[in-house]
Amino acid sequence: MGLMTAAQYRASLNDGRVIYWGGETITDVTAHPRFAVPLAVASRDYAYDDPLLAPIITYETAPGEHAHRVYQVPRTIAELEQRLDLGRHMSIVGGVTGVYMALLTIKDQLAQVNPRFAANIETMYRYARDHDLRAAEVITDAKGDRAKKAHEQIDPDLYLRIVERRADGIVVRGAKLHITAAALVHELVVMPTKSMRAEETDYAVAFSIPVATRGVRIINRSFAPATLNDFDYPASARHSMPEGFVVFDDVFVPWERVFLAGEWQLAGAFAAALGLWERTLGLVIALHEAEVMTGLAQLVSEHQGKERDPHVMDAIAELMCYTETIRMGLDYAVRHYETTASGMLHPNTLGINVTKYYYASHFHQMVKHLQDVAGGLTITLPEEADLRHPEAGAYLRKYLAARPGVAIEQRMRVFTLIRDMTADAYGGWNLVTALQAGGGLKAQRIMMARTFDMERARHAALTAAGVTRGH
Amino acid sequence: MGLMTAAQYRASLNDGRVIYWGGETITDVTAHPRFAVPLAVASRDYAYDDPLLAPIITYETAPGEHAHRVYQVPRTIAELEQRLDLGRHMSIVGGVTGVYMALLTIKDQLAQVNPRFAANIETMYRYARDHDLRAAEVITDAKGDRAKKAHEQIDPDLYLRIVERRADGIVVRGAKLHITAAALVHELVVMPTKSMRAEETDYAVAFSIPVATRGVRIINRSFAPATLNDFDYPASARHSMPEGFVVFDDVFVPWERVFLAGEWQLAGAFAAALGLWERTLGLVIALHEAEVMTGLAQLVSEHQGKERDPHVMDAIAELMCYTETIRMGLDYAVRHYETTASGMLHPNTLGINVTKYYYASHFHQMVKHLQDVAGGLTITLPEEADLRHPEAGAYLRKYLAARPGVAIEQRMRVFTLIRDMTADAYGGWNLVTALQAGGGLKAQRIMMARTFDMERARHAALTAAGVTRGH
Amino acid sequence: MGLMTAAQYRASLNDGRVIYWGGETITDVTAHPRFAVPLAVASRDYAYDDPLLAPIITYETAPGEHAHRVYQVPRTIAELEQRLDLGRHMSIVGGVTGVYMALLTIKDQLAQVNPRFAANIETMYRYARDHDLRAAEVITDAKGDRAKKAHEQIDPDLYLRIVERRADGIVVRGAKLHITAAALVHELVVMPTKSMRAEETDYAVAFSIPVATRGVRIINRSFAPATLNDFDYPASARHSMPEGFVVFDDVFVPWERVFLAGEWQLAGAFAAALGLWERTLGLVIALHEAEVMTGLAQLVSEHQGKERDPHVMDAIAELMCYTETIRMGLDYAVRHYETTASGMLHPNTLGINVTKYYYASHFHQMVKHLQDVAGGLTITLPEEADLRHPEAGAYLRKYLAARPGVAIEQRMRVFTLIRDMTADAYGGWNLVTALQAGGGLKAQRIMMARTFDMERARHAALTAAGVTRGH
Amino acid sequence: MGLMTAAQYRASLNDGRVIYWGGETITDVTAHPRFAVPLAVASRDYAYDDPLLAPIITYETAPGEHAHRVYQVPRTIAELEQRLDLGRHMSIVGGVTGVYMALLTIKDQLAQVNPRFAANIETMYRYARDHDLRAAEVITDAKGDRAKKAHEQIDPDLYLRIVERRADGIVVRGAKLHITAAALVHELVVMPTKSMRAEETDYAVAFSIPVATRGVRIINRSFAPATLNDFDYPASARHSMPEGFVVFDDVFVPWERVFLAGEWQLAGAFAAALGLWERTLGLVIALHEAEVMTGLAQLVSEHQGKERDPHVMDAIAELMCYTETIRMGLDYAVRHYETTASGMLHPNTLGINVTKYYYASHFHQMVKHLQDVAGGLTITLPEEADLRHPEAGAYLRKYLAARPGVAIEQRMRVFTLIRDMTADAYGGWNLVTALQAGGGLKAQRIMMARTFDMERARHAALTAAGVTRGH
């Protein structure tokens, strides 16, 4: 019990989990080359021996006891700020492990309906924290025909459901999609993907189980090439992480790991609680990416002597506005935090939702601005291997010279990062994720509308219109 | 000395000032019907006997002494917040009187170059405060050919300049444009419109003089109809205020009222200091208008049973996002305030500039959303007079019925306000002002670029690109 | 019978029609100052003695017989082009008289259901043409609660309906909104505002009646000031036309003037047929306005020496793209015309709908571009009367000088037209009309979807995806 | 002489050309796996034995003599239409071979300055046509510091230049970037990248040489993975083509292959002539891609039962508008063609430039619409290999079921194509190419401005403003 080393983490994953990728059945993720980069990415979160990183990524749970800070329940604004700052210093595997915050957010509400399940949450949270585990957010169902409810689908399993209730637990069947890092975590924390109605009782189910549980199968997919180097793929090399298509083929879940089993009125609360934290973390990363994109636009322009071109300055100004607007939204959400019944702080819901929508709905435009100033070399620049080739490399060094003093490699790395972030497979993943994480633009608009203070706006409008009582 | 009553304010304006409007020479603005509504608007700022308003619009300058709060120099975040809140509770005449904050902002800097002028600022500020005066921001020159500098124009007077330096003062000549409320204030606070170069020395001039000073002439213009009622023009009735084309026909300014007279290096600082406060106030009002527009979109839709139409919901969600993004930007700018050498607080410069740019560059789109959901009645609804007509009114009451329970007058007032705010003369003024106040989109982008932390962005980009020293 | 003179047209309007405006009951529209400018606008369409205009606005109906070309049924592409060209050479009163094209478009279809009504269309068309009448398009009902159908409203009259069927005709009751020029035409051509269902039979009604028919009342509204001059209002002076709120208070319509009376299946066809011609004419005018806006942006920039400013050039380029895209869309719609069963040509439906949507959804953005380059004088420029004032005028002439050689009046007129077209009451009317004419953005999207060749797109997508039969 | 077979084409490429890719020196492009897919793509243009394709891709040059239609000089509107249609039926290698049209476009102009060079163009055109060669458009120089001219760079070779003039020809040095298909064509047709000034005489150079000429080196780059299958990469499999970084290391060009050698006044004309044809072909492909994207949006929505969701319908309507606007622009450009002095037809310059700008400036927005409706499976869908895996495949078939009757493979292929076209490496290439092909948004705006009829717009504006002579 306690913090693991990176080596212990790696070893812990060789536990018999059933993994498919690219037509192969992979028996040991720690040994397969396809997982090499993602494992390196995930392992960084266990670098507790890094003296600069340690104070950021750990906290004290009891005198002398430490855990990864992703497990810290924020109870002061300082702790909330530390949690957001943490988002910049951990991988997406650490990020999704934040799923426990969502569980704790709804624990109070759940306790009123099913105290045992609420206690299970508390127990599982402590277990995961104290064993330094990583968990995946397992939410999105296969969904089938969207015009139909869960129980109306041609196959009742298109939403994950309870197929058997036994004395010692439940048996579930279904599939969950877009499960980031599923193959590289310890626990799968499963929740309903939407609110449920009375007739969908069997679909109101939430629980946590180890990845290696019998009946669990993970089919993987990644934007990242099977192999990559960090010169040609500087962003992918830090973010490569497979998404899992996770199948539950009659999986048994003991009662002590169940958080919801038929209480359909609470189904929607899980997804809502998760969404807020997911969007918050997404914005922390979005702010960083926006700032990087702004810096890249400036650098690529300076390198080729175009930073005073008014058209370039306009595009960069748009990127500045984008960056700062996200920064201000996050700052607002933290300073106007909200508090749950049990004293946990979370960012302002409307602030997060508005900023997320602003970020998502303008992202493609910002990519356009960056690509517009960067130019064609973004996609035609030769690779590092050619730079290292004696003849090709000499030509590249001669002809990629631009403004005096700009190192050729720096110029190449700037173009390469622009390509990797916006115009290659990871770039495509970024575009889709900006829109879809947190539920697509439509869902995001609905989220805003739920917490916007329309009564105040309506009152302001009526007052301005000169309407008083009796009109 | 001390606070004036509204009646005293009105009386104080009949001082011999030279005013033109619509081909007439107007000798007493307090008696001319063209000024009736604007005067009513401006007079509200003197309603110190309103017990709800008084604590908001006044503050104590010395034991038992009160002044209008627009004169209060914010020294704590609470005072800064009060100042922003004040923006919602005073007319634009009060708003422009905030010009003294700009003067005080640059006073320290000015003192190093010309202590006498710095002292003049302090003196004039106290004088205006203690006499409860109103002042106009007199900035924009005629400018002539924008491709040429001040001294290169075909007429050297196209930028206001010093034409004579005398022992007792200076004589100035020129014209200033877009001077809101010039005909209804006491003091004209004149500043350079841009930074100046050494060869433009005579154009580096700032001072304050009474409106009735010999040689000052004001040609007026207003978006508002000559007469209006507040049913058909609910917004215009609160905002009607003439803009002045102010001519300085060899006007003498005594030295004690001069703030700049040739110190060209400081010319740009005046406009910059004013811009920040002007944009801040603009955003306070913009936030209110955005909230009103959101409420109007909701009301007009509810009235006609369309508030669940997904297309309508989408448009309203965009208005929500707009409103809250402005709110968050203002909140950020206040909480991350900056402090001058002499301890005066002002909102975060980058925060204000970014939020202003966001507001300005998206405003036309928001007008489109509101007009899209409101529909054609926005422009074809009959007037109040027809509603009061026995026959026409009966027809209107019958045929404007919509969802049960919605009062006809309320429905009409909502449409009328949408028209007045977005699709009539005041609406046009709003569109242009959103873009041009604070200098047009291009100037706003430049303002952002000046204070954006590009070094941080550049560093973030280089780090992400894997560039370290030596590359 | 035959063409009227302008004087005859004016005289013909003093026929006892019941008109309300601004709380007045107006007994003779030809004598009331409120109608002076609109009447002048409408009268221009009768200037058959203008030798340049005559060939454009007339055609030969039989040897030696002429009619206004708005009555010409296009049967060749040349005639279709003439019709579009006509749109630039007649007032909006002429424009709405094109309602007969819509009636003729559905005549064939109607003949299969009710030959008598089809014959009525033909008869009324010839009558109006041969008497050189003007007609209004009377479509939009009061509508009440949009979430309910016509017969479900709290007042059954909220959609115009047949309240009595008699041997000699029908009696109708209801109100129609946004009826351009209703007070200044001869005939009101009434149609259903939407498709109707079986239970809405009484609402499926179309007919034509003279404005002075007993029971017809028109409440007027206009964007234009009660009086205006064409220096300060150059666009309004050409486009000022009241919109009518037209009430049918148990109006009797003889059978020979009825086009639809219960055939609910055809109700939607009327509005659809009208929409195409209305949008076509709208685009002809939109193209002209876009070209004018582009020219204004160029002129206002040249006048003040800013036409080489890259920011200005960008904005003007956007206006160019807008202008030419509309031009190309109209050209396409004419060249790819469609033909009705009886041989009448009309523009390509999809082409018109797409171009209309493009125009409508980008218009606010184009206004923004123009206002951005024009600057603040757009709204603060003094009026013509001040220019004519001896003292004020001298100052204006001195200080509005800009680039050498630019006449002051030309500079003022350019600003004034920008204001009138985009930032004053007519500008607001333009903004709302761009969106709402032809049914709002949502309706326009639906219109596009109806005629888009999705089968071709689906096939292209499947082929590109490698899907062949059996997959 | 005459048409080649695909086999002959392949064989012709093994000619000793010097190629680098990924750190390797490749001695035979026809044998290296990296070129396998691109070669297959290029070879399709030689499928003259396809009876459906042959009439589209060939034409008769003399009785019984045929050539690829890319060589046909359009002299009638029908031939111009055939040329555009051809764009859909050849690879990008065929497309860039259209460079000869650009040469022929400027031949007349060139003949007046240097008849010999004009004759060289004619000779080279016939030679390439009659040997069924493929040629690359070799335009963009390395450019170095954009703020400096060609001769001011730190290395004079940063723009390709003549380093020696000999009796038998010239020697050139420099590098050209973004050269599509350089490694798989026969001829490199080299032109200046911009207009040149008198002091840049040595940079005004154009010529054509075989790829295997001594001193030519090509460093390759591609968006496409080294290996790919057409299930997972349906678009890449058809479009995979390397871009070349082409170095000219003191390459000798005999005079008979020179088209320009110092006539700096004509340098800009080459790029301009090429640009028009390049943008035309780009629009032909863009129209097809827009139609495919629209079909994909519809299909992916139908498959999951969302095609009646108003939000989805809105997004699809935007895609429809985009598709049809490009279609109408291309149609206009063909119908309003222009003719060169020697009788060659080309599309309307303004029409092409406007449509290109519309396409480029809205493309990212359209990608957003498609990705918004498609959802997360776009990036997380497992690969074909997993579908073929007995266990994983069975799970995929079960859980990807959606609306009854939709084949799983079809659903997967639709998602896969959306990913490949918009959210993977080819998608990124598409985004950048949409913006940059034809010179970036700024260059495109300048191109529009050059041919827009501003005199007409200025006149329309002045007339509308009431300006007549003398004002």
Task: List descriptors.
homotetramer, 471 residues, 18 helices, 14 strands, globular
Summarize the structure in words.
4 copies of one chain form a homotetramer. The first copy, chain A, is an alpha+beta fold and 471 residues long. Chain A has helices at residues 6-13, 36-43, 54-57, 77-86, 92-97, 99-113, 115-130, 236-239, 267-303, 310-335, 349-374, 377-380, 384-388, 390-399, 408-422, 425-436, 440-451, 454-464, and strands at residues 18-21, 24-26, 58-62, 65-68, 135-138, 161-166, 169-180, 187-190, 205-210, 216-221, 243-254, 258-261, 338-339, 345-346. Chain A has a 6-stranded mixed beta sheet. In chain A, a hairpin with a 2-residue loop joins strand 1 (18-21) and strand 2 (24-26). In chain A, helix 6 runs antiparallel to helix 7. The mean pLDDT of chain A is 96. At the A-D interface, strand 7, strand 10, strand 11, helix 11 and helix 12 of A face strand 7, strand 10, strand 11, helix 11 and helix 12 of D.
The largest chain-to-chain contact, stated as pair and per-chain residue counts, equals: A-D, 85 and 85 residues
Mean pLDDT of chain A: 96
Beta fraction of chain A:
15-25%
As an assembly, this protein is homotetramer
Uncertain stretches of 5 or more adjacent residues of chain A: none
Distance between the terminal alpha carbons of chain A, to the nearest Å?
69 Å
Largest beta sheet of chain A, briefly? 6 strands, mixed
Which strand order do you get reading across the main beta sheet of chain A?
Answer: 2-1-10-11-7-6
Structural class estimated from helices and strands of chain A = alpha+beta
Number of helices in the DSSP assignment of chain A: 18
State the share of residues found in helices of chain A, binned by percent: 40-55%
Question: Nearest-angstrom radius of gyration of chain A?
Answer: 24 Å
Number of strands of chain A: 14
Globally, the shape of chain A reads globular
